[in-house]
Amino acid sequence: MPSRGERPEDGAGLVPAESSTLHKEELSSKIKEQKVVVDELSNLKKNRKVYRQQQNSNIFFLAERTEMLSESKNILDELRKEYQEIENSEKTKIKK
């Protein structure tokens, strides 16, 4: 665990392999989080209300459940694609 204000996402002082591994772990965590969001939205009853949080604030706005579900699925797909690209680039580096 970082201490004294150090943030692992900065990547300062890391060699590229460590930075790549750190980014891969962060992506993996975000993918798991997004899977939960998609599952929760998928299992909601049709009449339930869904709210979207305004970025960088504590304000929530009513949103369409279907729109939120499709948006969350798109985000999940993008994260998976990025994760796959990192894995493929690592495999390519190993082959060289």
TrEMBL record:
Fetch the Pfam families from UniProt. ASNSD1-SEP (PF21975)
Show the segment(s) annotated as Disordered.
Answer: 1-27
Task: Return the protein name.
Answer: ASNSD1 upstream open reading frame protein
Query: InterPro entries in the record, alphabetically?
Result: ASNSD1-SEP, Prefoldin
Q: Which organism is it from?
A: Odocoileus virginianus
Composition bias of kind Basic and acidic residues appears in 1-10
